């Protein structure tokens, strides 16, 4: 199976295809050091918060929650009740090997995960017949929706958050 096939499998999967691993396990920790004083360093450990396994083929796992940037100010974020926006990694593993990494944004204090917009930063989407908004690859948006569905038991309104952020999905140009 190649990388595009794995991405397609994830994109087209449903939440019930995945098994969430619970019970406060440690998921793929990242270690870093910071100089505290001239001769002293501290070790910081952070990790993914969620790990899921694809039931039809347990060689496929997704893990997310490892924070890349904890406190972002982004132009597309409306004044949600909680203004905190963080950029997180969503890592894809096959047979234990990291094979892909995407980014999602934790918005409104963690109430929803939104996809990363196209790297071009193009503001060429169409909302209510007016050209505006931020273009997001349709498959990337579907994977972000899956992350929301696997994370939240509250029935987060993913589409509402997408609309509030002015994110418009589009199929990639080939």
What oligomeric state do the depicted chains represent? single chain
- Number of beta-strand segments: 12
> What is the chain-wise order of helices and strands?
HEEEEEEEEEEEHHE
Report the span from N to C terminus.
Answer: 21 Å
What share of residues is helical? 10-25%
Ranges with pLDDT <50 over ≥5 residues?
none
Biggest pleated sheet: 6 strands, antiparallel
Structural class: alpha+beta
Amount of beta strand:
35-45%
> Radius of gyration in whole Å, from Cα?
17 Å
Mean pLDDT: 83
How is the largest sheet built, in terms of strand order? 1-4-5-6-7-8
Q: How many domains, as an integer?
A: 1
Instruction: Estimate the global geometry from the Cα principal axes.
Output: globular
Number of helices: 3
Write the layout of secondary structure elements.
Elements: H1 3-11, E1 18-21, E2 27-37, E3 40-48, E4 50-54, E5 60-69, E6 86-94, E7 97-107, E8 112-115, E9 126-127, E10 130-131, E11 134-137, H2 138-151, H3 158-164, E12 167-170
Helix pairs in contact: 1-2
Task: Please characterize this protein's 3D structure.
The chain contains 3 helices and 12 strands. It has helices at residues 3-11, 138-151, 158-164, and strands spanning 18-21, 27-37, 40-48, 50-54, 60-69, 86-94, 97-107, 112-115, 126-127, 130-131, 134-137, 167-170. Strand 7 (97-107) and strand 8 (112-115) form a beta hairpin. Helix 1 (3-11) packs across helix 2. It is globular. The model has no long low-confidence stretch (mean pLDDT 83).
Task: Write a compact overview of the structure shown.
The protein is an alpha+beta fold and 174 residues long.
């Amino acid at each position: 199976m190649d990388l595009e096939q794995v991405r397609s499998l994830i994109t087209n999967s449903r939440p019930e295809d995945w098994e969430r691993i619970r019970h406060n396990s440690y998921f793929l920790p990242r270690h870093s050091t910071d100089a505290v004083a001239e001769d002293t360093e501290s070790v910081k450990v952070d990790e993914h918060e969620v790990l899921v396994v694809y039931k039809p083929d347990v060689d496929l796992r997704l893990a997310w929650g490892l924070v890349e940037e904890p406190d972002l100010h982004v132009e597309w974020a409306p004044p949600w009740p909680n203004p905190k926006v963080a950029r997180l990694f969503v890592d894809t593993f096959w047979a234990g090997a990291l094979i892909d990494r995407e980014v999602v944004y934790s918005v409104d204090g963690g109430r929803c995960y939104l996809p990363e917009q196209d790297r071009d930063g193009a503001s060429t989407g169409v909302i209510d017949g007016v050209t505006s908004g931020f273009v997001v690859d349709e498959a990337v948006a579907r994977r972000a929706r899956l992350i929301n569905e696997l994370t939240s038991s509250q029935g987060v309104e993913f589409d509402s958050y997408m609309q509030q952020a002015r994110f418009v999905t589009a199929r990639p140009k080939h």
